[in-house]
Design goal:
The chain contains two helices and no strands. It has 51 residues and is mainly α. Helix 1 packs antiparallel against helix 2. The two termini are 21 Å apart.
Length: 51
């Protein structure tokens, strides 16, 4: 499993958990999801730059 795949799986899991969480936890989980999205975007830019 690549790092990008791991991040995508974690992102999906965090979003799924956020749907079921109370408002305080939801806010924190969504903030974590944003961090995963930023990391995925950075990896995508790096990969495109190597081509």
């Amino acid at each position: 499993m690549t790092d990008a795949n791991f991040l995508r799986e974690q992102l999906a899991l965090v979003r799924e958990l956020a749907e079921q969480a109370d408002p305080y936890i939801r806010k924190r989980l969504l903030a974590l999801a944003e961090k995963y999205e930023r990391r995925l975007a950075e990896q995508s830019r790096k990969t495109q730059g190597q081509l």
